[in-house]
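Re: your question from the hallway

Yes, I did run it. Sequences:
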Amino acid sequence: MSKPIQQLASIDRTIHEPARLMIVSLLDAVDEADFQYLHQATGLTKGNLSVHLSKLEEAGYMAIQKTFRGKYPLTICRLTAKGKQVLTTYRKVIRAAL
Amino acid sequence: MGSSSHARELNPTVVARQLMQQAHNRDGLPEIFAGVGLLIGSGMSWSDSLRGSTAHSVVLASTVLTIVTYCLVSGPIVKWLRRRYLIQRVGYVQFRTNKPAMLRAILLSVLVSVSGALIVWRLRSVGPLKGLIVMLGFLIGGFEVYAGRFLRFWFTGAFAVLAALALAASSLSVSVSLAVFFDIVGVVEIIVGGFVLIRLLSQPIEAGE
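Structure:
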């Protein structure tokens, strides 16, 4: 069995990136949120946020649904079960190591 | 202690909650609704002027009922207003349904309202309770600074504390001081929240993603 500090080497780099960790942590605390809300809560630029959301979606950590509320287009984001599992593991590793 | 608070700052969950709290207070609606709640609450203290008549108990009981009802409906109303009129500016979020927390909030609002009513009811027999106003001032001011996450909450929090201290030092009776305290803090909350909301509404809507 590896020591906690050694497990840091195997940490998930997709969510280890600060902006993505912020997005994943936010989405973990809610059921779902749209792009505009995440844009305001994280303070990231729209372009930057869009890139990070795409990476999280590609990794299968987040599901993105495009819909409308009246005339307003909504890009709704939610964590997948895989995303929640990865975040839980990430927290355990960081907590044990630091 | 320092390292513990540092660890909390680094905790992604804590940071996420702080960010959400900030986003929650961005449009000024929580302040406006809190201000209206304080104005309703002041009715409890103003009812003391009716002491001796049967209207006193009726006004006191109906104020308690109004406060509890208001606590229950204000959250959904804020949510509806945001989704109906502000969604393009503040975005959409669906918080997790936390039934135990909702139950605790309901019980707490009932407990606070009933205790407040009992205190107002017994005010004359227990003598001057100016300390109660100071305690309320620090409680409201502290909560604003803790939960607000914006500089303006330091202003409204400090105002609540200063108003409480000034009223406690005044020659006004406890019930009148309490009523005035709720009224002026409520009005300031509504003004500040209204200003924030108007400023938000005057900003151009950004193009969607």
